[in-house]
Design brief:
Blueprint (H helix, E strand, L loop, with lengths): L1 E2 L3 H12 L5 E3 L5 H8 L4 E2 L7 E4 L3 H13 L8 E4 L5 H6 L5 E7 L19 E5 L6 H13 L3 E4 L2 H32 L9 H7 L9 H7 L1 H23 L3 H19 L8 E9 L4 H11 L6 E6 L5 E9 L3 H10 L5 E4 L21 E4 L5 E5 L4 H13 L2 E6 L5 H12 L3 E4 L3 E6 L11 E2 L4 H11 L5 E5 L10 H10 L2 E5 L4 E7 L7 E3 L5 H11 L6 E5 L6 H8 L4 E6 L2 E6 L8 E3 L4 H13 L4 E8 L6 H8 L4 E7 L2 E7 L7 E3 L9 H10 L1 E7 L11 H11 L3 E5 L2 E7 L7 E3 L4 H13 L6 E5 L11 H14 L2
Amino acid sequence: MIFGTGLIGGSVGMALRERGWHVSGVDATDGLAARAVELGALTAEGIDHQAELVVVATPVHAASEVIAGILSSPAWSPDVVVTDVGSVKGPLVASIDHPSFVGGHPMSGSEQVGLEGASGDLFVGATWVLTPTELTDPAAYAQVRNVLSDLGANVVALAPAQHDALVAVVSHVPHLTAAVLMDLAAGLGEEHAALLQLAAGGFRDMTRIAAGQPSIWPDICDDNAEAIVATLDLLIDALGAMRRRVADHDHDSLLEILGRAADARRALVDTTPRPEGLVEVRIPVLDRTGMLADITTQAAELGVNIFDLEIAHSVEGDRGVLVLVVDTLSAPTLMATLSERGYRCTSNPVGNHRVSAAANAESPSGDEQPYLVRGGGPLIGTLGVPGDKSISHRALLLAALAEGTSTITGLSDGDDVARTMAAVVALGADVGSDGSAVTVRGGRSQLHAPDAALDMGNSGTGLRLLAGVAATLSGTTVLTGDDSLRSRPMDRVAEPLIRMGAGVRGGGDRCLPPIDVTGGPLRGIEYTTPMASAQVKSAVLLAGIAADGETVVHEPVATRAHTEEMLAAAGADIAVERVGRGRVVRVRRSTLSPGTFTIPGDPSQAAFWLVGGVVVPGSLVTVTDVHLGIERLGFLGVLRRMGATIEVGESGNGTGSVTSYSCLLHGTVVEAEEIPSLDEVPILAVAATVAHGSTRFRDVGELRVKESDRLTGTVALVTAFGGHAAVDGDDLVVQGTGAPLQPGQVDARGDHRMAMAAAIAGAACPGAEAVTTISGWESVVTSYPGFADDLERLRSGAEAGE
């Protein structure tokens, strides 16, 4: 059902009817709906109260009343979904407080106005912005998004206010500017008759939009006045600066801005998704009627598909270059045919080469099958993530140290935490489970050094924290793990524990696992962590609650505070002081009390879905019950700074929901202290790859000693999807182009976070035929065994509107 059968409404109707829809419609202008039936834009004239989708294509000032009338009337189907096409979204969306309304704006148009200019192909390749809010029903959003995608549009989700601010820059102010320039030229043309005769292709291109329908613009300017005025002010300032450059003959500054603008304009072409094996065919042409039709007709007769087309006008005269992007195999035939017709053609390959992340890495051992991720569809829905892994480890250890029985709910189901649970059993704690909660009966009197080595698998957190606990027990505890963990240095934990009186031995100068930790009488120390490490801090504090005197830990950069907070809740003698960007923690010998631990969702796991919501076109993702600790949410600040729309709703007790939408990103600088654990760097690098401009992650050298060398691994990851990244000292630099990701082959190198980051990147690749292969996927079981199932569930939410 369509309200308003002008250019956009008529084009929507034609496009839907070409795809088999029954489309009814009305228009306030007498006879226009009947004409729409004649032209094939409508199946029938009139209101259809049983319509499943209503598109309101009225002028902006009338849309609110129409939409509110539909959604408040019992005459309409209760399942009806309503969208609109207005170019200003903020006031309209604010006035319609209903989950079945999805604001929309097609970024397309025609030199022809009204119904007579309508075309079913108007939206093919065009951007169509949707403006969902926190209230929007995901099923309604999915329905609208899927319909628009079927019309050939590229769907992007933006917050209403962000949409209005951006559209002021790329649509509203350009139209007003074109109108002013055209009006200026027309006025001067009255005095200089030859002026408009001099207007070559460049002038006509720049002022083409001034020929649009004037009657719609007063309402647009009223509704988006704030953003338009702000953008006009910026433009006026920029033109004033340009005037000064010209008046002062400042050639250097003039060349700088012209070069910058030329680079930015050329980059627009590269944002269009293109298959592999394409070339640019460049054809010098005269700006003459029929020239373009002649060339494109020849291509059509030869069966050559034109993937992209652009006319590069000369800055003077009537000449330019027609640039056609075609596939490599068709290019020679097209060029030969055009040469026979007198055109001089040259060609250049389109740079779209991809390098596999596995190119410089050994293949994973074993017979594990690779995980295949298909692209081409949005991620839509609401989900929870596993219990926070960091808090889960600590809950188990503190419950084992507490005098009595503790209860834990929401425990992470990953292998890392399962290893810690097995370890506390080996230390002497009694652990039980009823399926929904885990009980731990512990106490100092029943803990002891285990009879056999504790195999911590891939869990560096588990091993380092257990080293602190083992230092308080009589006898020797042996801590080991898999090949990856045995390559990770433990000297950073060994050094302070040795100073406290424990014996710690490992392999080589860096104290590689397996390590032997021999407990004994401990004494408090004052210790400054040499790097941002919550694991090292926690190991010292866990040893400190059994040491004589005061143990003081200085953190130059504050890391996640789970250990301090949980120790305080268990009754430990502990004090915490914020000092600048860091923290000082003081602890004395303490007896811990049992308690109830409720583990919130892991924000580091939520990061994958929230970045997915931003980078996978058309997505809308909400993660519920997430831990909202300030030291854990630095990645949200990074995403917001890159231009992402992120909504956080607090639920109490330090948890809440976080929602992200697909949107356009730009580069930024990320300081290591923003994300002290560095866990989110690989997935943020995926966001940086699709952003416009460079993103630099500063001082992230610690990535080299994670589960894998994540510094070089992230470079390989970005490269695998067609991006550009490099290591600069301890910095990671990702050069984003704004272009879509391309499917690749990735070796996760046994690292769960690299594997999950690759899966999100694979999901962001356009086209259902885009398939990414990830080897080493088995590592995901360490932290998020159900990741693949959740990915498919979000895809199913998009496909089924659930």
